[in-house]
Design goal:
Number of strands: 10
Strand content: over 45%
Largest sheet: 8 strands, antiparallel, barrel
CATH architecture: Beta Barrel
CATH class: Mainly Beta
Structural class: mainly beta
CATH topology: Porin
Number of domains: 1
Distance between the termini: 34 Å
Shape: elongated
Strand order of the largest sheet: 1-3-4-6-7-8-9-10
């Protein structure tokens, strides 16, 4: 009987913590629209060519799992994928352009409940993708990097939520095959999406 009471008390405590943490515990999935500002820089000796400021629109998807870490804290483990290219460089005079493709991210996002329906969070991620350069021919290179961002989720009802997020992505130095100079790609993404809690 004593063990049963302890078990019931523990179950009640967990349920209470999840209720206080809002409806953001468990599995979730959704899609978003994003505004991207991309850039790429290349160093040639002592000079650097910088192409920051390329704008593009995109769509993406996300999945996550939220764990309650207390009465008002949640940590979310997530995976994001961009279905659209992000422009990073364009020179119309020389017909050279570059972009990022197949961007994916594995992330961890600690957050706190602002109200019983709104979660604010900070996000750290590991990024993976492909850089593509086009001129007279096309070259590509797989690249990796890191990201950080901030965001907010607000429940419409028990299962559906709005997600707003801003993320900064930085990739490490890489080099296309046959080239003598390294390049670095980066991007800033602002997105608005709708998700569903399972």
């Amino acid at each position: 009987m004593k063990k049963l009471l302890i078990c019931l008390a523990a179950t009640a405590a967990v349920c209470s913590a999840q209720a206080q943490s809002g409806g953001f515990t468990g599995f979730s999935a959704g899609g978003n629209l994003a505004m991207n500002a991309g850039g790429a820089s290349e160093t040639n000796g002592t000079s650097t060519i910088d192409g920051f400021g390329q704008q593009s629109l995109g769509v993406g998807g996300f999945v996550g799992y939220g764990l309650s870490m207390g009465s008002a804290s949640i940590i979310t483990f997530g995976f994001d994928y961009s279905f659209s290219d992000i422009k990073t460089f364009e020179n119309t005079a020389s017909s050279i352009s570059s972009k990022l493709q197949n961007l994916s991210s594995v992330s961890i996002a600690p957050g706190t409940m602002l109200t019983d329906k709104t979660l604010a969070y900070f996000k750290l991620g590991f990024e993976n993708g492909k850089a593509v350069q086009s001129s007279t021919s096309e070259k590509s290179k797989n690249i990796t990097g890191n990201s950080w961002g901030v965001g907010m989720k607000t429940l419409f009802d028990k299962n559906t939520f709005l997600q707003v997020e801003v993320k900064q992505i930085n990739f490490g130095a890489a080099r296309y095959d046959g080239e003598t100079n390294d390049f670095k790609a980066r991007g800033t993404t602002g997105s608005v999406g709708v998700g569903f809690m399972f």
